[in-house]
Amino acid sequence: MLTYTIRRLVLAVPTLLFIALAIFLLxxxxxxxxxxxxxxxxxxxxxxxxxxxxxVGQPWYIxxxxxxxxxxxxxxxxxxxxxxxxxxxxxxxxxxxxxxxSPVMDIVYxxxxxxxxxxxxxxxxxxxxxxxxxxxxAYRQYSTFDNAGTFVSMIGFSIPPFFTGPLLxxxxxxxxxxxxxxYDTVHVVNSWDSFVIxxxxxxxxxxxxxxxxxxxxxRFMRASTLDNxxxxxxxxxxxxGLKERAVVLSHVVRNSMIPVVTVIALNVPGIFGGAIxxxxxxxVNGIGQLLITWLFANDLPGxxxxxxxxxTLIVLFNIxxxxxxxxxxxxxxxx
Length: 335
Hints:
Layout: H1 2-28, H2 44-54, H3 60-84, H4 104-139, H5 144-158, H6 161-175, H7 192-229, H8 232-239, H9 244-267, H10 269-273, H11 276-281, H12 287-296, H13 300-328
Helix pairs in contact: 1-13, 4-5, 4-7, 5-7, 6-7, 7-9, 8-9, 9-13, 12-13
């Protein structure tokens, strides 16, 4: 397993370099001067630094090389300097946002906590709710509980966040006045009262996202459990006299989790990517809203960096899902 993991990580390097090149070329093909939309108030020396950092006016391979050096060499050095007080990145050119004229990674670091508070908590809540409901619905197929779970899942699938978000705002924020409709990003949690306020402002966006994620995971878990309940090994385990609880939890659930792990692992990068629609509706200054802002502003360095980070997370969690297959199913070996 260790050899397989190392081999996959090594193969991921050229994959990510090719992805970075594809993203860069797509953005490079976009029409117009990349500096044309910048404010006239930018000082000439700052504008020149931005052009120099991005290699504007130079061949595409030079621009691509500069971005690679900044992302894989300079930015890790900046992080190392912050952790250990060194000066390896002193005076080196970082990736600058065209819109804010600030380092892109600094802005990303600032936006990650709100995204994790909202999207991360919603994902955890969805997993905790969806998996037990999916298992029990499959075990009690066509029961009242199963029908109710199917009905709620269909609602979660059918109604998009841009409808459920304003609907919940009207009900809980406008009519009942129980919860705030706008997320306060600068709120600091340093006491019990501030933690309660944080829970209240998280409630609406978490409900919107958790409903959608729960519906997806619940259907996958139910279908996978139903498929395994009809397998021969389940009948054999029951014939041996094993208790029904042991049959379901020790055998059925473990094998049923294999396809569900893929869905969970591949959706985890979405946590860091943020929920674009939900973050816009509830004014959460997270990664999703940042990506939309940079897209509208034609901020190519920011879009390039964020998109590559998402691609890296997808490749990484794909590897994690493959490794978990071997943990969940003893029949799967990568020797």
